[in-house]
């Protein structure tokens, strides 16, 4: 339109350079001296514009998400402030300080939940409804069942281990009594050995005495046999 109104010829400057300069700002002629500089300048400016627009969109999205997170708080705060101002105006002549509750009513037949709540709340709802209830909660319930079954099995094994432990205690007590009895038997055996040795010594002494008595008897018999011979002479 500018070229038609000014009767300029259609060339690079009228078709591209002038509108581009109006949008992003007119620059020095250094960037338009040759084709490579022009292309480099256009790519750089376009890339910067895209980056800046993306940054603005992300900032606006973050601000909107932050506002949506606290939207109910802001809404109820504004309503409470309006009610407070109204009460202050009404009670202007006489100040009355009464603690009251703020009742918030919602229209019963109003469809809620269809508006866009922001990425953060939408992701939170998705994680709560879709991921947690459909995927995570069943797996957690299954793991809980498996853990409860394992706990039951472990408790039963613990009971069996306790029973075995009690049996081992009984066996150990019986072994102690058997060991004590074995010690008593060993003591009796030692006493029997001592008595047997005493009996052996007494028997050997008795044998010696018997031998001595036999010798004495033989001597007496010899002397008795000598007496008749002596008397005959």
H and E order: HHHHH
Low-confidence stretches: none
- Determine the mean pLDDT: 76
Label the structural class: mainly alpha
Largest sheet descriptor = none
> What proportion of the residues form beta strands (DSSP E)?
under 5%
What is the radius of gyration computed over CA atoms, rounded to a whole number of angstroms?
60 Å
Shape field: elongated
Helix content: over 70%
Task: Say how many strands there are.
Answer: 0
Number of helical segments with 4 or more residues:
5
Determine the N-to-C terminus distance. 198 Å
Keywords: Coiled coil, Membrane, Transmembrane, Transmembrane helix
Protein name: Ion transport domain-containing protein
Organism: Stentor coeruleus
Description:
- Keywords: Coiled coil, Membrane, Transmembrane, Transmembrane helix.
- Residues 196-223 form a coiled coil.
- The chain crosses the membrane at residues 39-60.
- The protein is an all-alpha fold and 233 residues long.
- It is 80% helix and 0% strand.
- It is built from five helices and no strands.
- The model has no long low-confidence stretch (mean pLDDT 76).
- The chain has helices spanning 2-6, 12-24, 35-69, 71-90, 119-232.
């Amino acid at each position: 339109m500018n070229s038609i109104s000014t009767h300029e010829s259609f060339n690079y400057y009228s078709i591209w350079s002038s509108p581009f300069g109006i949008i992003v700002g007119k620059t020095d002629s250094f960037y338009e001296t040759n084709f490579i500089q022009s292309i480099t300048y256009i790519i750089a400016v376009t890339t910067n514009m895209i980056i800046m627009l993306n940054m603005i969109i992300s900032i606006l999205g973050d601000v909107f998400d932050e506002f949506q997170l606290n939207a109910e708080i802001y809404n109820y705060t504004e309503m409470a402030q309006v009610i407070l101002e109204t009460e202050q105006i009404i009670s202007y002549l006489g100040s009355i300080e009464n603690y009251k509750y703020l009742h918030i009513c919602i229209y019963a037949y109003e469809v809620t939940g269809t508006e866009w709540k922001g990425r953060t709340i939408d992701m939170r709802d998705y994680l709560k409804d879709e991921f947690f209830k459909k995927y995570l909660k069943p797996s957690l319930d299954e793991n809980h069942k498996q853990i409860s079954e394992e706990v039951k099995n472990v408790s039963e094994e613990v009971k069996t281990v306790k029973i075995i432990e009690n049996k081992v205690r009984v066996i150990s007590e019986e072994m102690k009594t058997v060991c004590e009895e074995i010690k008593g038997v060993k003591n009796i055996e030692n006493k029997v050995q001592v008595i047997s040795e005493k009996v052996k010594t007494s028997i050997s002494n008795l044998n010696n005495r018997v031998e001595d008595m036999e010798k004495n008897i033989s001597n007496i018999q010899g002397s008795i046999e000598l007496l008749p011979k002596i008397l005959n002479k």
